[in-house]
Amino acid sequence: MEPATGLLRRPARFGLLLAAYGLFLLLGAAVFAALEAPAERALLAALRAARASLLAEHRPCLAEQQLTGLLRGVLAARGYGAFALGNGSADPAWEFTSALFFAASALTTTGYGNMVPLSDWGKIISILYCFVGIPVTILFIRCLLRCLLPVLTYRPVRYIHSRWGFPWAHVALGHSMVLGLVTLTLFILIPAICFCILKDNWTFLESIYFCFISLSTIGLGDFVPRVMCPPSLHGFYELSITCYLLTGLLAMLVTLETVYQLQEVRALIRFFAPSRSSTPEEEDRVGIVSRDQLALTSDLGRCTPRNLTERGDP
């Protein structure tokens, strides 16, 4: 009866994890609804008041149907990435560097939504391009990670461990924290300061929000990196944004992969994940090995580049 209890232990933990995640989703929905619903009602009331004031002031020469049609046209154009407001001097949306940014945001699944294909052939090509390009992008990023992780993660940890004799687990944890701070500074805080300067209507919090939304590939589209700049600098700006998106995404993945290799994270995953063992004997052996190898603060034996925090005995 005891082996059967052991077999049920891990599925029960996984069920607990599923329940906790579902509760996390419900809690997030409740918080967002409580915070955003009043703001939405206030915004709609202000817009209705402004519309009524405009119609009352210009009623002899402005019909309500004309104003409604104009606003619908402007919003429809905005949905396709065309800015119909202003005097028409805005930068074109589909010159080469802007199209390059669109391709990069599509292949990284960021998809801000500020630029979308207008023509039918553009929509067809977008489907085929992303159908092929997204798997190729994933493969390309995985290859880059295999090249960068030993240089940025394994070798520094191994050097500090062998040079000063600090416990491997402690060095790996400290290295992950430093790498996270460097990534946060170089790809969140500093770019946020730049966007706050370039975009006069963005606050520092909104700039940080945009950087995080971009590098996490969420890309809600409420903030887009489009600025009014001289034509001579527009191409350079669009190219810089494209490079920032690609390098920042790669830096985030390197950091997350480094954190994932920590033995504390590995232990947490093994605690909740269902066992792949097929027999009670294999389950018992896995449990013994896990208890021996996943002590969170023990100094382990030889190191291997495959796992930064788990090493076998000499």
UniProtKB/TrEMBL annotation:
Pfam families: Ion_trans_2
Record localization: Apical cell membrane; Cell membrane; Cell projection, Dendrite; Cytoplasmic vesicle
Gene Ontology MF annotations: outward rectifier potassium channel activity; potassium ion leak channel activity
Protein known as: Potassium channel subfamily K member
Reaction it catalyzes: Li(+)(in) = Li(+)(out); K(+)(in) = K(+)(out); L-glutamate(out) = L-glutamate(in); NH4(+)(in) = NH4(+)(out)
Lineage: Eukaryota, Metazoa, Chordata, Craniata, Vertebrata
Source domain of life: Eukaryota
Self-association state and partner proteins as the record states: Homodimer; disulfide-linked. Heterodimer with KCNK2; disulfide-linked. In astrocytes, forms mostly heterodimeric potassium channels with KCNK2, with only a minor proportion of functional channels containing homodimeric KCNK1. Interacts with KCNK3 and KCNK9, forming functional heterodimeric channels. Interacts with GNG4. Identified in a complex with PSD and ARF6; interacts only with PSD that is bound to ARF6. Interacts with UBE2I.
Residues spanning the signal sequence: none
Every Potassium channel domain range: 93-147, 184-259
InterPro entries, sorted: 2pore_dom_K_chnl (IPR003280), 2pore_dom_K_chnl_TASK (IPR003092), 2pore_dom_K_chnl_TWIK (IPR005408), 2pore_dom_K_chnl_TWIK1 (IPR001779), K_chnl_dom (IPR013099)
Organism, as annotated: Crotalus adamanteus (Eastern diamondback rattlesnake)
Keyword Zinc-finger: no
Coiled-coil region: none
Entry GO terms, CC: apical plasma membrane; dendrite; perikaryon; recycling endosome; synaptic membrane
Keywords on record: Cell membrane, Cell projection, Cytoplasmic vesicle, Disulfide bond, Endosome, Glycoprotein, Ion channel, Ion transport, Isopeptide bond, Membrane, Potassium, Potassium channel, Potassium transport, Synapse, Transmembrane, Transmembrane helix, Transport, Ubl conjugation
